[in-house]
Design the sequence.
């Protein structure tokens, strides 16, 4: 059994997180329930920041809020002194509602709409990470109309393939994101941007992918970017003030994942940038990073109630829970693997190998294949670990299942930070034909 962060086992044999008995949490808040270990999140944030400080490098650590965006988590990230990465008007709206300082927000996305860009420019966002020529045109148009100037980074595609799942790769040449470095698109974008009085080009951004376990990909990306920056200095007299190398730092979901500590990723990045600027006699830029998963991923645990079971003799033993792909799409989408325990039987020996099924009307709604557990009974609480990133944020109402509640636990206190959806919530945007006729 692998317990981490503030997890422990109490005298009842129940799993505790943040000093709270998880079985009690399910009684108080119901299931499925996302539980976040806030101390773990704060420690991660501090490790990233400390590395910059210790190496005396100016930097920003921007939380990639797509991993888990709610008002309360953004308040925590702000308390910890992080910046913020948003990718839509909705994420920006959430940040504004959390009173996140707008000068510390960076806006990403490969197809930002006119209203989204307008919203960002109106709130004097820290920077817009411009992804393509169309967007550059929109930013120029909006700024002209409002007589404003926007800080921008240019997102470049370094053309490397990080070792991760195909759907979460982003830095390869054949990608929908960013200006290609290799074919000259990125240089053309820089040239165009420098000619515009409406934008201030702070620097360059790249993001090579997600759930990455080694530093090689980051180092190669930085090398490739610097190959071009030398040329940009000569030809366009341009040097970036900021180099943003994105996020993607991996976490441990199961025994087969071997992530590095946050410090190790940051040190390797800083080391490579320092080496490049020294070699090519360029200015040391500020270094920005954008971790999402590595800040909140393993801090999240989902608690489910076990219900029905089905034995297919000599084939499989299915154990069903009261959630599934609607609160965690990752196994179905990426064949992602998870570990779990029975939270009310932590100290009991494992007795059987079972597969955990969700309750959605899809054969593919399986959370875990073949896991050894103590004897599972209806009413037991299953705790699935490492569901804090891209769980709630990718949740859906498929089969009209209400989205779970979210609770933060810290030092023995549990705080409800997202209410459980009700059936009433599920229909609140629906209009009956009678109403449509009336209008
Ligand atoms: C531009 C950008 N920055 C940051 C992230 C965060 O990635 P992760 O959650 O893997 O750290 C992503 C997602 O892959 C991204 O697309
Ligand atoms: N949603 C993905 C990662 C994509 C990250 C955003 N570019 C996951 O769950 O792993």
Sequence:
């Amino acid at each position: 059994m692998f317990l981490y962060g503030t997890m422990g086992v109490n005298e009842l044999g129940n799993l505790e997180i943040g000093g709270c008995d998880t079985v009690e949490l399910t009684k108080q808040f119901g299931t499925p329930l996302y539980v976040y270990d806030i101390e773990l999140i704060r420690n991660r944030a501090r490790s990233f920041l400390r590395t910059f400080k210790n190496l005396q490098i100016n930097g920003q650590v921007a939380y990639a809020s797509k991993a888990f965006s709610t008002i309360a988590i953004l308040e925590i990230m702000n308390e910890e002194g992080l910046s913020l990465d948003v990718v839509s008007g909705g994420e920006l709206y959430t940040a504004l509602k959390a009173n996140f300082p707008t000068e510390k927000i960076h806006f990403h996305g490969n197809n930002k709409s006119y209203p989204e860009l307008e919203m960002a420019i109106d709130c004097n966002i820290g920077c817009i990470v411009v992804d393509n020529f169309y967007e550059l045109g929109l930013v120029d148009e909006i700024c002209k109309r409002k007589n404003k100037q926007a800080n921008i980074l240019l997102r470049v595609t370094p053309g490397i393939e990080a070792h991760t799942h195909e759907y979460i790769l982003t830095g390869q040449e054949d990608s929908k994101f960013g200006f290609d470095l290799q074919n000259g698109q990125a240089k053309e974008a820089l040239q165009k941007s420098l000619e515009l009085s409406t934008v201030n080009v702070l620097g360059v951004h790249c993001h090579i992918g997600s759930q990455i376990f080694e530093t090689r990909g980051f180092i190669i990306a930085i090398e490739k970017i610097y190959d071009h920056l030398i040329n940009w200095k000569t030809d366009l007299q341009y040097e970036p003030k900021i180099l943003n190398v994105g996020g993607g730092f991996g976490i441990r979901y199961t025994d087969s994942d071997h992530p590095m500590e946050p410090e190790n990723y940051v040190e390797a990045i800083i080391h490579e940038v320092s080496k490049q600027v020294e070699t090519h006699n360029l200015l040391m830029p500020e270094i920005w990073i954008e971790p999402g998963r590595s800040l909140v991923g393993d801090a999240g645990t989902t608690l489910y109630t076990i219900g029905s079971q089905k034995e297919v003799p000599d084939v499989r033993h299915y154990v069903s829970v009261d959630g599934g792909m609607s609160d965690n799409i990752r196994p179905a989408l990426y064949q992602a693997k998870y570990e779990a325990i029975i939270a009310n039987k932590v100290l009991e020996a494992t007795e059987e190998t079972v597969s955990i099924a969700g309750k959605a009307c899809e054969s593919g709604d399986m959370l875990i294949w073949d896991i050894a557990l103590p004897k599972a009974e209806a009413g037991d609480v299953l705790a699935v670990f490492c569901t804090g990133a891209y769980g709630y944020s990718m949740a859906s109402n498929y089969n009209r299942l209400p989205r779970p509640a979210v609770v933060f636990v810290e030092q023995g206190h549990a705080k409800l930070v997202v209410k459980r959806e009700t059936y009433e919530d599920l229909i609140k945007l629906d209009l009956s034909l009678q109403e449509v006729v009336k209008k």
The longest strand covers residues 300-312. The chain has two domains: 8-30+299-426, 38-296. The chain has 13 helices and 21 strands. Residues 403 and 421 are 5 Å apart (CA to CA).
